[in-house]
Amino acid sequence: MRVVEWNIERGARLEGIISVLNSHEVLARADLLLLNELDCGMARSGNINVARELVRALSAHAVYGAEYLEMTKGVREELNLPGENADALHGNAILTRHHFSNPEIVRLPRCENNFESREKRLGGRIGICLDIEIRGMKLTAATTHLDVVNTPRCRAKQMRAFLQYIESRAEESSEASAKIIMGGDLNTHTFARGGPLRTAKNVVKIFASDPERLARSLLHPERKEPAIREFTRSGYEVEALNDRAATSRSIVSKLDDASRLPNPLRGWVMRRIGPSGLLLEFRLDWLAARGLRPLEDGEAIDRKTGATSVCPQTIAGLRWRGSPLSDHDPIVVDLALT
Q1: What pTM value is reported for the model?
Q2: Fold of 2-188+225-247+283-336
Q3: pLDDT digits (tens, 9 = 90+) for 10-66
Q4: CA distance to 9, 121, 146, 280, 329, per residue, from 90 (Å)
Q5: Percent helix, strand and coil across the chain, each rounded to 5?
Q6: From CA 269, how far away is CA 41, in angstroms rounded?
Q7: What gap in Å lies between CA 144 and CA 101, rounded to an integer?
Q8: Distances (CA, A) of 12 to 6, 15, 39, 169, 202
Q9: So where are the chain's domains?
């Protein structure tokens, strides 16, 4: 079973995303797509239902869960796009071509103040879970997208609540309880964000750290992000399902946080990092499994298609007409159905 987790950044470049998911030598063979950031009726993504368009283009089923009712057109350049929102929804989805049952949407604990930032919206973070059957084997699949403008402790609280819900659900259905696959954008950037004080502390952390040590910590955030450790506490395997490549990159000068700094400090930061900004690379996206074994390159051959297994990997550099398809890279794992 091939599982792909991907934050597709609103689905704004949907034509390219569809092309890649239908033609890429690895992504096109996915049995399960765990997707984050899908718009429904937002001007920034053409006022379409992104999940529905993916269903049509991939000949798949989808379960879509709305996190937010958006009160604005988005952030930064999105605010100046022509047109107005229609449904104005934003959320996550699970797509598959296989039989599924018992889909559920789970509301996670609230941490983020949705009206502190320029992107004002109603709602909160969610998880989606369902049971899927492939070649007679039943398992639970789940995805979530944790808060970004908050603390590592908050993200751990959200992850703990979701894992506890899945555990209670598994206890009610013994067939699926032993095998679980989860993936999502966990926003494990290691910083506590939100407000001028936290922003100032982050600036000190960035510029006071050894650059190589900081880079390593952002790609190995387990020590500072307890949300990842929640997997281990619940019996999930994480290490074997993930490489340690960056899945997202941010330029410090372009982050909304910079606007929260006092003018003298903001000026000092801008002079320190220069006109091109400071690039930080993060491991934000993760896969975790319980009762399922990840495969390596060439370890198994699919009897039906002849495709060989690949090792857990991050697929970087996906572009469409000269632009990145998303601000996140997809991650992939092959799992043995035995």
Answers
A1: 0.93
A2: Deoxyribonuclease I; Chain A (3.60.10)
A3: 999 999 999 999 999 999 999 999 999 999 999 999 999 999 999 999 999 999 999
A4: 10, 10, 14, 26, 19
A5: 35, 30, 35
A6: 38
A7: 18
A8: 14, 9, 8, 34, 30
A9: 2-188+225-247+283-336
